[in-house]
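Section 4.2 – Deliverable D4.2 (structural model, holo form)

The reporting period included a commitment to supply a predicted holo structure for the target in complex with adenosine-5'-triphosphate. Inputs used:
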Amino acid sequence: MLGSGQLGRMSAMAAKNLGYKVVVYDAVPEGPACSCADLSITAPFTDREALGRFSGEVDVVTVEFENIPIAVLEFLETKVPVRPSASVVRICQDRILEKEFLRNNGFPVAPFRVVTSVSELAVGISDLSSPSILKTAALGYDGKGQVRISPGDDLNAAWAQLSSPRGVLEKMISFDSECSVICSRSPHGETRCFPVQENIHRDGILDITIAPACIAADVAANAQQIASSIAEKLGVIGLITVEFFVLPDGSLMVNELAPRPHNSGHHTIETTLTSQFAQHIRAVCGLPLGPVELRAPGVMINLLGDLWKGGAPDWEPLLRESGLFLHLYGKSESKPGRKMGHFTLLKTGENTQNRALALRESMIGKAC
Ligand code: ATP
Ligand code: MG
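Output (structure tokens):
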């Protein structure tokens, strides 16, 4: 496993359930995945000796984040199967390549322009002639590396704020809702999509996921169809998560791709017959893909570091709630916006979402 964050942690747990041994490699020490691994290697991604040692320990390599230097994946590919491959990660780690891949293959995306200077930004703004979002081509996550621009704004300031030499300027879309689909694809080319889930963001960070999404059946089928076609076109082995905007007429636009488990799929640990993490491991290890039918609908709520601002949260209300599953990632330091954990509340009655939000509120600042 390249990377040691919470996605790696939950994937490692799924791998351990299947009896595998897990080796985690990361440039930073003591990530959440390390305590669930049989061996952790901490070394820069440029350290060929350490990478060689890592590849000697494993039968297959996978990733839990996409910002891994491509040269590292290409080097590892000379030693062991790397799933997803360097060619898939190359596209998904660069917003320009990703948008161009989607557009060139006929997948629906928001109108966009590639910008590498303030003058190109000015041309893009006038072409798109609407409120827009300027996004960094590389290393953006959780809404970081994005600048919202309205007509008349100071473009020099916007370009300086991006602080990146390459970006994508995207038309601001007035969507009805956002949803995502996690599609698994095996080395034999079999694909299987999880049910569509609805995502609600706050300050650019995923806040709530509702599973399954409350959208028309034909819209959901279309989202799964698009996700499967993307998985096939990319030739991904493992998972590909496709984020969508749902427009008022029910049509879909692809927002972005992630070639790995995704925060919006955490609820699958409890809500579907196979979790996204177990499916990730099945796919990269060449096992049969698991069934993805819904076992119970649910709502997933993210727990960010902000909840710690008045001291350790009070876990009792959560732990007393029937049908609530709490997952903490074992991070020792909380920071605003940092993903510390999540919980999933199964839908057992009315107003599950409001109940889940009230439970999160009830935790704040009451140290136990
Ligand atoms: P992630 O945490 O999913 O990796 P990210 O930082 O890569 O996020 P995006 O998914 O591109 O960023 O954007 C974050 C959120 O900002 C979206 O989920 C959506 O709510 C909003 N957003 C992004 N692009 C647009 C757009 N073109 N029009 C309207 N809203 C947008
Ligand atoms: Mg996103």
